[in-house]
Structures
1.
Amino acid sequence: PGLSIESMLSRVSRFKNSAHKRIRSPGTSMVNTPSFGASPLLTPVRSYSVQQHQDIPSYFLKTPVTNVTTLPNNIKVATEKSFGEIATIGVYIGAGSVDENRENNGTAHFLEHMAFKGTSKRSKKDIELLCENNNILLNAYTGRISTCFVAQGFREYAENCVELLGDILQNSKISNSNVRNEISVILKEKESVENDLFEVLLEHLHCACFGKENPLALTILGESSNIREMKRDRLMEFIKNKYVGERMVIVGAGAVNHEEFVEYVKKYFSNIKPTGESHITSDQSSFIPGDLRTVDKVVGRAHIALGFKIGGLSDKYYFMLWLLKTMLGEYDKLNPLGSTVTGLSQVAMEKKLCDSYSVFNSYYRDVGLFVFHTIAKAETANEIIDAFLQEIQNIAKNLDEHNFEIMKNVIYKQIIEATVGNTFSIADEIGRQILSYGRRISAEEVYYRVQSITLEEYKACLDTHFNDVVPGVAALGDVENFCSFEEIREKTKCKPY
C-alpha cells in the first residue's frame, strides 16, 4: 500500500479550510508551549496561557457546561443542560463482570434483569404502564466494568424518571421465585448471544489475551451453570458491596436543571450506602497473549480478531490510538458508502482481501485492547492481516507533519459531533468519564490534548504498541490454514520507526 492517508486528504481538507477556523492573535505561536498530548487523562489540563487559549477554535469554547455535585452518601450527580424538551437520566454503577469470579460470574447481568420485575410499591405491570402512559423509555445494560440503568422522557417527567430509577434500584423484589423465573429468560439470551459469531469471537479474544482465570475473560452473561444455580443471596451480596455511593454516578442530560436534579437524587436515592465492603479493584492483571481458534469450515469464512495490549481509560496514549483507529478506518463490501476511505480500506477493496474489517479500542479500568477484526475468505485471511500490520508500519514511517495535522482535523470534527449528539449518548459519555476519571473532560480540553500531540510522540506510541509485540489471537470458522501464532508474532517485527 501507499501512504495510508493519501486517499483521505481530499475529503478532510475541506473541513480544515472551513470548520477549523483558528482565532489565533497575530504573531502567536504554539511551538514553545508544553505538550499535554501524552499526559494521563486523570490529570486535568487546568489552565492555559492567553496564547494557548486563543489557539482553541471558538466553537470548542461554546459547548455545554457539565455541573457535578457529590452528595453526602458519595453519589456523584452530574448534569449537562442542552436545547430541546427531552431529558435522559442515567445511573452508572462501577460494577460489572470484572468484579466477579468463577463462582459468581453472571451476577451483575442477572441483577440488570431483576430490576424490571417489580418493586415493593410497583408490580412489573405497574412499571410498564407508568412508562407507557408518560412516554418514558426505560433500559439497562451490563458491561465488563460498569452497569447502567437509564430512563428518557420529556422535561416534565424528569422527576418521575429519577424516582422510578431510585425505586427499581433500591426496592426491587428479588425473591427466590422471581430469580427462578428469570433463569430461563437469561439462558435464552445467552443462547442467542452464542449464535452471534462476532460476540463469540470477542469472548474468545479476551480469553486469548488475558487467560481464562482473569476476570476480564469472564463472559458478561455468566456461565450457564452459574445462571442455573443463581440464588437470591448471591444477588443481594453483590448489591450490598457494589451498588453503593462511591461507585455510582447519576447523570441528567438535556432538559434538566442542575439544582432541581440534585434535589431529586437526594430525595429518591437516600437509602444508598456511601461505601461497600469491597472497593473498586484494578483490572491490571497480566496480559498473557495466546492463541484461541476453532476450526469450523461450515461457517464458510474466517472470523479473526487480533488484540494488542493498550492502557486503560486514563492512559496517556488514549487520543493517539484514537487517531490511529481513524487512520485505519473500516470497510464493508456490502456497505461501501459506510466504509471510510483509507489506505487499508482501498487495498482491502481493490484486492478483495476481506468481506469486512473494523478497528476499535476496548478500554477497561487499567488495561485495554486495540482490536482488529475481520471476516475474510480462507484464502485471503492471511493477506488482510499482512495488509493491516503493513499499514501501521506505513503510517509510522511515511506520515509527515502536514498530513498529521489534517488527520487531527478529522478528530476535531468527531469531538464536535459528540457534543451535539442525542442526550442518551451524551449521558453515557458523562457517566463513563466520571466513573473513570472522576470528572468530565470538556471538548476544549480534548481539543487541546489532541492539538498538543506531536508527530514524534505519535510515532513513539505506534512503536510501543505495535512494533515487535505479541498480540492475542482469536479465530473461528474456516481457519485451518490461517497463519500460526508465531508467524503473526514475527509479522509485527520491523525496523525502528
2.
Amino acid sequence: PSTHINIGKALRPLSTQNILILGSGFATHNLTGGKPQSVVPWVSWLKSVFDKDNDHQQKEKQLINWTSAPGARYAHPREEHLIPLHVAFGASPTGRGEVINDTLFDDVSVSFLSFKFL
C-alpha cells in the first residue's frame, strides 16, 4: 500500500494543472462464493479512516495497515480492487475523503462505498 500511496503523491502536482485523478475500484470485492458474511465492520472502518479528525499521516498509516481492520481480508481476499483508493488518497493534498456513495448490499457482501478526496 505505501508504494501506491507514493504513486499518488507523485501525481499530486497534476491537481494544480486542473487534471482530475480518478481511482476506480471496489470498497468490497469478495466474489468467491460461499455464504456471504457482513461487510459492515469493514465498511465502517473504512469510513472512519476519513470521518475521523485524523491528520494525513494518521490516515496514511491506517491505510497502509488496512489488513488489520475488521473484516479486511473477507472484503478483499486480494487487494487489487482496493489499490486505487491508496493512489487517490496519496494524490490528495489534504487526505480528506468525502463519502459520495454509501450503497450497501450486505446480504451479498457488496458495498459501493465511494469517496471524493478534497
